[in-house]
Amino acid sequence: MKYLARSALLAVALCAAWGCQPEPEKCCDSVAASSSCECFVSGSPERTSGAPDGLGGSGGGGMYPHGSGGGSPVLDIPTLQERPIAVLDGQRMLVLGDHGGLSIVETGSPTELSVSGHWAAPYSPVGVISRGETAIGLLCPRGFDIRGSVSCRLRTFAVGSASTEQVADVELPGSIESWRVRGDRLFVVTREVSCDGCGPNPGVQLYAFDLSGALPRQLARLSSTDKKVHARVVRAQIVLGQDRAYIVEARYDGSDYSDVRLVDLASANGEFEEGATLRADGWIFTSAQLSEGGDVLRVVGATPRQEALALETYAIEGVNEAVNLGRLDLPRERLESIALGSERGYLLLDSWRSLDLEDPTNPVLGAPLPLARVLNGIVPYGNKLLAVDSATQETLDPIRVSLLDASDVSAPRLVSEERFGGDWGQFANPSIWGESALQLSGDGLLMVPFNSYRYPQQDGACGGFISGVQLFDFDGEQLAPRGMVPTRGDAERTFVVGDELLAVSADRVERFDISDRDQPDPTGWVSTSAYVQESHATRNYVARLERDTWTERVKLSLAAASSPEAPQALASFDLGELLGTDECALPGRPFLVGDERTVGVVLPSTSDDAGARVELIDVSNPAAPVPRASVTLPNGRTWDGPDSAIAFSGQATAQRDGVLVALSVREDEGSPTARISVIDASDLDAVEVTHVEIPRAFALTGLLVSQGAVYTSHFEPTDAGQVRFYLDRVDISNPRVPRYSAQNVPGSLVGLDDATRRFVVSAPEFHSEPSRECEHPYQSPTIANGVCHWTSNRFHLIEADPGVKVLSSVESGTHSYQLLGGDGFLVAHSGDAPSGLHLYSGFSSGKLQYTSTPQDSAGLAHAAGSVVALYAYPELRMFRIQESAAPVLIREDTIGDVSDVELTKDAAYVSGREDGLIVIPITPEN
Prior knowledge:
Blueprint: H1 7-18, E1 21-22, E2 42-43, E3 86-89, E4 92-97, E5 101-106, E6 114-119, E7 123-131, E8 134-141, E9 151-158, E10 165-173, E11 175-182, E12 185-191, E13 204-210, E14 217-223, E15 232-240, E16 244-252, E17 256-264, E18 273-281, E19 290-293, E20 296-302, E21 308-317, E22 321-329, E23 337-340, E24 344-348, E25 352-356, E26 364-368, E27 377-381, E28 384-389, E29 399-405, E30 413-420, E31 426-427, E32 439-440, E33 445-454, E34 464-474, E35 479-487, E36 493-497, E37 500-504, E38 508-513, E39 521-527, E40 532-537, E41 541-548, E42 553-560, E43 571-574, H2 575-579, E44 591-594, E45 598-603, E46 613-618, E47 626-632, E48 637-638, E49 653-656, E50 659-668, E51 671-680, E52 688-694, E53 704-706, E54 709-717, E55 723-731, E56 739-745, E57 748-753, E58 758-770, E59 782-784, E60 787-799, E61 805-811, E62 818-821, E63 826-830, E64 836-841, E65 849-854, E66 860-864, E67 867-872, E68 875-880, E69 888-894, E70 900-903, E71 907-911, E72 917-921
Antiparallel strand pairs: 1-2, 3-4, 4-5, 5-6, 7-8, 8-9, 9-10, 11-12, 12-13, 13-14, 15-16, 16-17, 17-18, 19-20, 20-21, 21-22, 23-24, 24-25, 25-26, 27-28, 28-29, 29-30, 31-33, 32-33, 33-34, 34-35, 36-37, 37-38, 38-39, 40-41, 41-42, 42-43, 44-45, 45-46, 46-47, 48-50, 49-50, 50-51, 51-52, 53-54, ...
C-alpha cells in the first residue's frame, strides 16, 4: 500500500537477464529450496539474429506532481493574507486550524483551556464567523483541480453544545477570493478555477448573505457576464466603501490591467445595482492597493512582477460615474508593501516612500523615509508611523519596530526603534498586501508576532523555530518595549481579555497572564490541529505518527477510537526521546503496526550496514501507554518493494496475535539474502526474536499473512540461464520456533485468498513475431530486423498444500501494478496504458476471472473487505468490488496532499498532512 510498483521495468530486466518463456504448466510436490526439481523453470527463448539484448520499455505510471500537470497558472500571484482563522466570542473561541478543521475552545475556566467540540475536514481555512450558537466557516479544498471543478463551501455549525455539528452547507463554485462582513451582511467574491485549456474565461461571482437568522440566507448574486475571452481574470476581490462595493478583477490579455466594477450596496433587500466599470493601469493584487475616502478612489497598479506603475485617483459619484482626476507615475521598482489613506499614503519600493494625497488632482511622491528595506509592513497612526522590518536573505538581523514622525511629508523623522527576535527574525504571518497583523489594544498594548529559526547546535540535531509575541507600550508618542510571550508556532492572532492574552497559532491556542507585562506567565494551552503522516486504527484506539512542524521532530500519539480526528491526543511520545537521540533525521521514515494491546513503531533500515529498530509500547490503557521493549534487528535494509521485484504486493511487516514479523534483505557479494525476523511480543516482559534466512533471494516480494503463517516469494537463477520461483512459508503458530518451508511455483507471489488458502503468482512471458510494427502499448515492445519482441505477465491461481497445483491462468492486463487483496478478490492498479483498476476474482471456483475499470492515474492505494481506495493528487476515490463485475465508484473526495491511507472494513483513515487525520465512514449505502 505504501509504495508504487516498478514491475514494467522489472519484467523487461528479468527477460534480458534470465529469459522469459515458461514451459507448459506442471505440478510439483513440496521441495526444498536447493532441490534440482525442474517443474516450474523459465525457458530461454530463441532469439532472431539482431534482436536486442535488452528489451527497453518504460516504467510505471504516473500522476502529476503537486501543482502541475496541464493546469499550472500562467503567473505567480501574491496571496491575500487577510485570514481571520480565529474569533473570540465571550468565553468561547472558534479556531480554524491549519491541519484539522474547526475547534471550539472554551476559555472561561481560570485553570485550563479545553476543546468542547471538533470537526475535521479536508479543507483549507479561509475564515470563520461567530453568530452566537452557530459558527460559519469559509472553506476551500486544498490543491488545484486541473478540470476546473473546485467548489468552496459556506458551512454552518451548531457550536452551543459539547459537539460541533454541521447543520447547513452552501456550495460556492470556484475559489473564495475575498470576503467581508458588514453588520448582518456577508459579501463573498468567488472566481472559477482557471487553467490552460480549461475552456472559456472563468467568471467572477459576488454573493450577499443575510446573517441575521439561524442560517445564512442568500440575498443576491451578481455574475460577471464576461465577454473578454482573451482577457483572463487572474485575481478577484471585493473592497467595501461607504455605500458601495468595488469588485476588482486583475486581468491579463497581453497587457496588464484591472477592471474595477462599482456596485451599490444600499438596497434594503440586499439586491445589487451594478454601475460603472473603470480600468486601472496594472494589476490590483489586494485591497491594500485601493482606498476610498471623501468620494475619491485611490488606486495603485503594479505589473505581474510587482513593479509599481502608477497612482490614479477617481471622483466617484454614486455608482454610475467614475471620473479620472489625476495620475502619478511611480518608479518601476518592486512594490513590497503599501498603505493608502485619504491624505497620506506609504509605499515600500526599493526604499520607503510617502505619498501626499491631499490634492487628488495632483498626488505627490514624498521623500524617502529613514528606514532600511522593510519587508513586513507599515501602519499609519495619525501623523505617526509604526514600521516593522526583519531579516533579509543577505543579512542576519533581528526584527526591528520603528516609530516615525511623518507630520512633515518632505522630512519624515525617526523617533525610536526597538530590536528583538534573535537571528533571522521574521514578522509572523506578514500581511504584506493586506491588513497588518500588528495589533493595538485599547489601553496601549502593541503586540508584534514574530518567529526566527534556531540552527541545530550540532550535526544531525534538529533545528526549529523560536516564536512569540513581543509586547510594547505605545501611547501614540513613544514606544516602550516590555516582555515577550513565547508561543509554539506563528502567532496568527492574539486576543487580550483583562490581564490575559490568548495567542492562536497554526497548531494550538495558548493563554498567558500579562498582569506583569515584563514577565508574561503561561497558564495553559490546547492543541487545535495535528500534522498526521500515518495512522493505525484498532477498536480501542487510533495510533498516529505526527510531524511537529515547529521542532521538526516526529511523535507517536494515541487518540480515542471514538474521536480519532481530534487534535488532542490521549497521550504522546517524542520518538527522538523514546530512542534516546537528539538527531532530527530518523533512520528512514517510521511506520506503525499494532493490535489491541501493543503498538509497534518500526524505524526501518535503509542500508546493509544497520538493522531496523522496533519499539514496542503497551497500549492496553491508551490513556497511559508504557514503552516496554526495544528490538534491534541484524544488519540489512528493510524491504521496500525493491526494483528487482517481479510483482508488487505485501508489506515489510505483519502482525497477528502478538507476533510481529519483519522482512529485510542484504547484499552478499551481489547475491541478496532475505531475513524474516519473527518477534514474539505476546509477553512484553520477555520478548524473543528468531530469524529465518533465505539465501539467493532474488526478486523478493512482501509479506502476506494467513491463518498462523506468513508468506513471501523469491526466485533463484539456474545454471542453464533460467530462473526457478519459490513460495516461502513461515509457520508462526509457535513464534519462538518458527518453521520455514519453500515450494517451487510458477511465479512470484502476488495474492493470497484467506478463505480458500489459494495463491496467485505471476511470471513474465517473452513473445516475438515477424512484424513491421509493434503495437503492444502496455507490454514494452521493441522491433528489430522485422521482428517484434514484447513481454506480458501471466497470473496463475494455484494450490500449494500439500503439493503445487495450477488451477487456472490468465494474462494480466498491465505491467506496472500494485496488488491489493480484499475479501475474495485481487486488484492491480496502474498508471500505465491501459491505466485503471484490474480485478481478479474466482478463487472459490478455482478459475481466475478478470475485469477492468479505466482510471486516469494511480497513486497510494489500500484494500479491505470489499472496498479499494485510490489516492492520486488531489482526489481520493473509493470503489466497491463485486464478484465478476467491474469495480463501482462509491465516493470521490478532493483532499489535497495525502501521505497515507489506511482502510478498514468500516472507514478510510486518510493522513492528510495539512488536513490532519480525516476519517471517511464506509457504510453499505456508499
